[in-house]
Specification:
Belongs to the IUNH family. Keywords: Hydrolase, Signal. It holds the Pfam family IU_nuc_hydro. InterPro entries: Inosine/uridine_hydrolase_dom (IPR001910), Ribo_hydro-like (IPR036452). This protein is an alpha/beta fold. The protein is about 30% helix and about 10% strand. The strands form 2 sheets. Strands 3-2-1-4-5-6-9-7-8 form a 9-stranded mixed sheet. The protein is globular. The N and C termini lie far apart (about 85 Å).
Length: about 900
């Protein structure tokens, strides 16, 4: 066939172009025509952040992170976790990635899973609300080295991460289930699970028709053949010198090895959920402790990392890693802290990158050796089919939940807590196996691709002896896909300053200590106290109680409010994490949630309190914040770099105040559980002598059966009030102490619960920044109260301002009426009675009870104080700060 000259020219051109592209392609990374879509589920632990930033650094045309969901039943609390995620994504310029957390759905008694189940509890404990127990989560410390440090990322979250426009907002926050469903529905997606499996198991159980769009599941968790190196004998130690409590265990539950030495945290957080994921039929790769134990953060890696921080993301990770090392509980950090989640991300990415090779059936990758194993997840303990009250799937049911098999693998004893007597033998290690990724054969096993160990560095001359060490540092320090700025560098004229009033020439009023649990009503009260003239009230200290309506890391909101009002001089002390006598006897950093489980985890509960109903980020950012910095002088294993910044404890603040030598007696106002005050008077013999009077907002005095308390989540306890119920022994200790106590009970508070009245007064003025913020908060509470069933209790927070108004207000306008009563407090360990205040004319202790105030006078006092331009805000909002830091100083 003859060709024209034009055709010959075009043919030659085509061959030339193809040849050139082929030659160039030899030196270009192979990028698929469409990227690998990745959905990440994370519990926002520190090592999760390492994995997330690693994924965000990858070429988006090759690996596209399309969504993030938060595990809210393990190492983080939902409100703190979601805002930290928004800030980190903002730093990386990825505000486009949806973040899902929580949800108000439930599971019916017949096993029907409703939409948007929040994942706040393991599936075995999930019912129709967001209140529930903590049989697994109680293994995680609540304070130092635990949830407090994860919620705040040891204090570096607020110091380093920029604040963007995205935030948690009530009823507008995307739920975990919605984000998963949306992203899996769009296109085939790979899933990486770095926390508990609750969210994804619920999705799989509810949406079996979407399984075909799940390409692969990568899991960090479990221990198959692992042997825990933590606690093993150092090479130079003798058996007499060293006790190996965890050495050789399959798992890593460092606070629970006495009852369960087999489980790893991510799987233990919800064993039944993990079982559902593993047995779903979706292809799966597991990166267990077997592999991660072979890639520790060793000293050479740490020192190399310290010298290679060329991006904001590398700096953030190193700061996080360094404070973790500096606050580690012993001297074995380099042998005990591993690249759990970041290594999993690296292995997953390398396998996906090699997936273009269709013969890569054995998970070939650059970083880990792989092996297929037959495994399952242990969800209950033998003997199966024996009911002992530990297993809600079977106990007291005509038919098992989810149609589970009677006498099957799910029907045995389920671990009930840290000190489950069934799990603790008289001698030897614990015998419960809940959450164990057990290697078995037979029909109940699943064939899973498992990473067994980290590959050594191919460059034998390198200081870094693992291949992934090199890749991790290289990826983090790439100039591509890098973070744009940190908190200070996002503003060209950023200036950190503290505001402390000069009161040296002022005759100060009565010294007051405010004890708060950080409910919205407490913040309204704090605004009021800061507006009362210092000549009348000298607010000496604020004590924060994490045993009430907000989690410990919410202390940062207190610091921000004080900064706004120009009172960075007021010390803030952090109270105990557990009610009196409810921390674990062996490991005091963990404990049960017997009373605090009555507070919802989701809407109207911790999720909202921890974010101040979405409004905390409107407050100006204070240089003061919670930090894990610590010193040997205060019991830490070593001094950190900035130990002078350490967060003072409540008892320290109290003792510093009482030993100051001023001689003035102190007035105490409590707006939460009485944990802190009970500890003060129990541990400090001088406390009673320096306390002039105590005003307690809380308790319920019922005169007839129809006069109920407010524990709306515990129907069996009809007559208690939350502040008493959340720590009944503390309430008993304080109310029966003989101190001069005035109780402001629930009945009196309820008279001050009109949103309309207080808003009418605020709308007529609101001339100061603090008045405008309070109006916005109250308006938000009112709207939620009117529009959603989860918020029907919002009005109870309004009455909490009564204590502050009574202590700092004009009694002539308040017209208070008080009466004396002899009372006692029920604190016998019975949830149906604990926290109730009973009249006892024979053996009771006398207290005063505020029976009535003039409501109009109270509303007027509150609103007029807020609108007074004296002692007004020094900096009105974060937006004002943003403008100041973006404008050249005049």
């Amino acid at each position: 066939m003859l060709m024209s000259a034009t055709s010959k020219s075009l043919g030659f051109l085509f061959i030339t172009v193809v040849t050139i592209l082929g030659l160039l392609g030899q030196n270009l990374p192979c990028v698929q025509s469409s990227p690998h879509r990745i959905l990440l589920d994370t519990d926002v632990d520190t090592d999760d952040l390492f994995a997330l930033l690693y994924l965000l650094k990858l070429n988006k045309s090759e690996f596209d992170l399309v969504g993030i969901t938060l595990s809210a039943n393990a190492w983080t609390n939902a409100g703190h976790g979601v805002n930290q995620m928004y800030d980190l994504l903002h730093m990386m310029g990825r505000d486009d990635i949806p973040v899902g957390v929580g949800g108000e759905g439930g599971i019916l008694a017949d096993g029907t899973i409703l939409s948007n189940v929040g994942g706040y509890f393991p599936i075995i404990e999930q019912e129709m609300t967001t209140t529930g127990g903590c049989r697994y989560r109680q293994a995680i410390p609540k304070g130092l080295g635990g949830i407090l440090d994860i919620d705040s990322n040891y204090g570096f979250r607020k110091q380093f991460l920029p604040q963007g426009n995205r935030r948690y907002t009530p009823l507008r926050q995307p739920t975990a289930q919605k984000v998963i469903a949306d992203k899996i529905s769009e296109a085939p997606t790979t899933v990486i699970l770095l926390g508990s499996h609750t969210n994804f198991a619920l999705f799989l159980m509810s949406n079996p028709h979407l399984k075909h769009n799940i390409q692969h599941i990568y899991v960090m968790g479990g221990g198959v053949r692992s042997q825990n190196p933590t606690g093993c004998y150092p090479s130079n130690a003798t058996a007499a010198e060293f006790q190996p409590p965890q050495c050789g265990n399959r798992g890593n539950l460092f606070k629970d090895y006495t009852s369960n030495p087999y489980a790893e945290f991510n799987i233990f957080a919800d064993p039944f959920a993990a079982y559902q994921v593993f047995h779903s039929g979706v292809p799966m790769t597991l990166v267990p402790l077997d592999a991660t134990n072979t890639i520790p953060i060793n000293k050479k890696f740490f020192e190399t990392f310290e010298k290679n921080q060329r991006t904001y993301e590398a700096q953030y990770i190193f700061l996080s890693l360094k404070i973790t090392r500096d606050t580690w509980f012993d001297d074995e950090f380099y042998n005990s802290y591993f690249m759990w989640d970041s290594f999993t991300a690296g292995v997953a990415v390398s396998i996906m990158r090699n997936s273009r090779n269709k013969n890569n059936k054995n998970g070939e990758n650059d970083f880990a050796e792989m092996e297929y194993m037959n495994i399952t997840i242990v969800t209950s303990n033998k003997p199966y089919g024996k009911s002992d009250g530990s297993n809600p799937f079977f106990d007291k049911r005509k038919s098992p939940k989810f149609n589970l098999t009677v006498g099957g693998v799910h029907s045995g004893h389920v671990q009930t807590g840290l000190r489950d007597p069934v799990c603790i033998p008289k001698s030897g290690k614990g015998k419960c196996k809940d959450g164990y990724t057990q290697e078995i054969s037979g029909p109940y096993s699943v064939r899973v691709l498992v990473a067994t160990r980290a590959k050594p560095n191919r460059n034998v001359k390198s200081k870094l002896d693992r291949e992934f060490y090199v890749d991790f540092l290289e990826v983090l320090n790439r100039p591509e896909e890098t973070g744009r700025f940190n908190f200070s560098s996002q503003f060209p004229y950023y200036k950190e300053e503290l505001f402390r009033p000069d009161l040296s020439k002022t005759r100060l009023g009565k010294p007051v200590v405010f004890d708060m649990d950080m409910s919205p009503g407490d913040f309204l009260s704090l605004f009021y106290l800061l507006k009362v003239p210092v000549e009348k009230i000298d607010l000496k200290a604020i004590i924060v109680s994490p045993t009430g309506w907000a989690n410990a890391a919410t202390i940062d909101v207190v610091y921000d409010l004080l900064h706004m009002m120009g009172r960075d001089d007021i010390p803030v002390g952090l109270g105990d994490m557990f009610p009196l006598n409810y921390s674990d006897a062996i490991f005091p950093s963990v404990g049960d949630c017997k009373y605090i489980k009555a507070i919802p985890q989701g809407c109207g509960g911790f999720l909202d309190s921890d974010t101040l109903y979405g409004l905390a980020r409107d407050l100006p950012r204070s240089p003061r914040r919670y930090t894990a910095e610590n010193s040997v002088a205060h019991g830490a294993p070593r001094d950190t770099d900035q130990s002078e910044l350490r967060q003072p404890l409540a008892l320290e603040v109290w003792q510093n105040l009482t030993k100051s030598g001023s001689g003035a007696e102190i007035t105490v106002l409590t707006n939460g559980p009485l944990t802190n005050l009970a500890k003060f008077i129990s541990s400090d013999k001088n406390s009673s002598s320096v306390i002039k009077e105590v005003y307690i907002v809380g308790g319920h005095i019922n005169h007839e059966k129809s006069d109920k308390g407010n524990i709306f989540t515990v129907p069996s306890n009809a007559y208690a009030e939350f502040n008493m119920f959340l720590d009944p022994l503390a309430a008993k200790t304080v109310l029966e102490s003989g101190l001069d106590i005035t109780l402001i009970p629930l009945t009196t508070q309820r008279k001050l619960s009109s949103f309309k009245t207080i808003l009418n007064r605020l709308y007529s003025s609101a001339k100061t920044p603090e008045a405008r913020f309070v109006k916005q908060l109250v308006t938000t509470l009112q709207a939620l109260h009117q529009n959603h069933k989860r918020y029907t209790h919002m009005d109870m927070f309004l009455g909490e301002i009564l204590g502050a108004v009574f202590v700092g207000g004009d009694h002539a306008s308040l017209k208070p009426k008080l009466r004396a009563e002899l009372i006692k407090v029920a604190a016998e360990g019975d949830e149906s009675k604990d926290g109730q205040i009973l009249m006892d004319k024979l053996h009771g202790k006398q207290i005063k009870i505020l029976e009535r105030v003039d409501l109009r006078g109270c509303y007027e006092s509150f609103a007029s104080r807020l609108d007074d331009k004296k002692q007004s805000a020094v900096i009105g909002s974060f937006e004002e700060q943003r403008k100041n830091w973006s404008t050249p100083p005049s």
